[in-house]
Amino acid sequence: MRLPLVLTVAGSDSGGGAGIQADLKTMLALGTHGMSVIAAVTAQNSRGVQGYWELPPEAVRAQYRSVVDDIGVQAVKTGMLASASLVETVAELIAGTDAPVVVDPVGVSKHGDPLLARSALDSVRGLLLPAATLATPNLDEVTQLTGVEVVDERGLREAAHAILALGPRWVLIKGGHLPGDAVDLLTDGTDEHWLRAPRLDNRHTHGTGCTLASAIAAGLAKGLTVPEAVRAAKEYITGAIAAGFPLGGGIGPVDHGWRFRQPLS
Fold first, then answer.
1. For the chain, what are the domain ranges?
2. What's the EC number here (predicted)?
């Protein structure tokens, strides 16, 4: 049996709740083989990000080529890329790879700590997003990239069009920061898919964005369409948030293995 192959290009989270660690846990939970290219190393825990150190572009390029040229890949997910030089390197690599790409344009951490240099924003807009099959920005990242500020559900459509104008084929605008239900908008500019889930009373949500993007990439690697992969990923992340647990003294992580802990019927 050959498992679908998914590659994450992102930062390492020493606390294990987000980043590369969350990506690989998600890929395993969803029945795929996860592989990794580490773009940055963070000192991070439940209280925040105490520091990060980006890897040189040649190290990122070598990791990527080592995996893709030998093992191959059926979907790629990008997360924290930290600097303009890394964004440019990764954009070039994924543009030359024949596989769907999910771009999570990580700008800040769950705790509000910056994870992307301001000097990298033009490279994200002009190089990384045009190479994406799907982009998955949250509302803060929409504002960071386009200037559009969303205050209610009606603004999700404007945000989607602003991101689509930067080049991805599809965009998923994550409305989790809005009041009410957790509502997201998936669109390619023509077809719209509104995804809703009840807002859960659980503050332990570290790693939600990384986990959702990785779950979508896992679905694409299995051959699902973008709408199918996003719907499956939304169901997975909703369960993971519901099962989120305390860790340390701050915000705990979602539970990537929640399905394995469900009682047998």
1. 5-258
2. 2.7.4.7
